[in-house]
Queue: 2 jobs
Job 1
Amino acid sequence: MGMGLASSEVDMAGTYSNRTDLLQDFAELRKRIEVSGPHRSKPSPPKTSGGRKKQLGPSETADIITKYTAGTSMAQPKVEHHMAKRTVAKVLRENGVVIRPRGGPTKNTTRTDLLDSLAELRQQIGRGDGSHGSQ
């Protein structure tokens, strides 16, 4: 049961090489491998994702909630607190904050909503009072 090069290949390498000391080292190493028999490697420990989880203090959590509810996107607290976006979202959800849809408040606005808003603005302009009407 041989591993690596056969003896004829070693002889051939010796023919084209002037480094017989390397060939002798190779032959000795090959004998040691054959004598020691097959080895089984130890199973590697299971891989974990990422490093140590960041523990937020109450003030950091409050800061994230305050900024998000004031209108900032999740990107700002993500960068400021060195967290993944999904972690920021998790912190917000765990504290009862409703996550806004991506793209801001107008993304899910219907055509009817826009027409209603336009009609309300026209009424305000027509009255000249600057009030917002009934809400």
Job 2
Amino acid sequence: MTEAEYGEDWPFVAGVDEGTLSCERGSDIIFETEDGTRYLLNYNDRIDGEPQSDSYPSAEEIVAPNRIPSWAAQGLKAATGPLIDRALKLCPN
């Protein structure tokens, strides 16, 4: 998937122009960047307050601030839901 494909809905910071989605270990959604770095995209999914997976760094560090300035000021990030939904289709049932 690429920034060109998603246009202004691309949720990642400048320099992260493309990547690959995968589903691992049930429902860990992984985003792999061009350089091979793998991030946990569904980092907001928590089990008892803890991240679902500690095997990958959180994609939070590569997700851009929200495009709505007042939301970005509150620390909210760009929406990754559409990518997560797309990747969940790759997960085994």
